[in-house]
């Protein structure tokens, strides 16, 4: 599945409108980095992609199985280490007050790793750039 997003940044540091189809989000940088903190910063957007995809993938599987799990919470922490050119995502998943057996937890763990964004992030990634 391919997607296209367009980011437009004018003269207001670093307020950026990002459009995908009919949807729009705002990204920005924190005040201490010269921005206005009016939206998610790019690292938060990256972590958001993993968190939201994980939650949606789990919901699809849980619904298909007919399990009564009304709440899915996914927290993602992203640490970037530019010196070593590495990054680490720490993903924590819980299901609110719902009691879940270890067997089902094991299945859900595997399903979380099958999330399409997780697969992209753990595969080789290539960025191609053109300037017009």
TrEMBL record:
InterPro entries in the cross-refs: KH_dom-like_a/b, OsmC/Ohr_fam, OsmC/Ohrsf
Domain of life: Bacteria
Alphabetized Gene3D superfamilies for the sequence: 3.30.300.20
Pfam families in alphabetical order: OsmC (PF02566)
Protein name, per record: Redox protein
Taxonomic classification: Bacteria, Pseudomonadati, Bacteroidota, Flavobacteriia, Flavobacteriales
């Amino acid at each position: 599945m391919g997607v296209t997003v367009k980011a437009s940044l004018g003269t207001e540091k670093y307020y950026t409108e990002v459009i995908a189809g009919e949807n729009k989000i705002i990204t920005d940088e924190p005040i201490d980095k010269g921005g206005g903190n009016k939206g998610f910063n790019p690292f938060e957007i990256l972590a958001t992609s993993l968190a939201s995809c994980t939650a949606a993938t789990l919901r699809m599987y849980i619904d298909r199985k007919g399990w009564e799990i009304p709440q899915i919470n996914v927290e993602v922490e992203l640490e970037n280490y530019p010196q070593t050119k590495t990054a680490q995502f720490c993903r924590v998943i819980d299901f609110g007050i719902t009691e879940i057996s270890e067997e089902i937890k094991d299945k859900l763990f595997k399903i979380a790793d099958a999330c399409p964004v997780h697969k992209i992030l753990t595969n080789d990634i290539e960025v191609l750039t053109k300037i017009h």
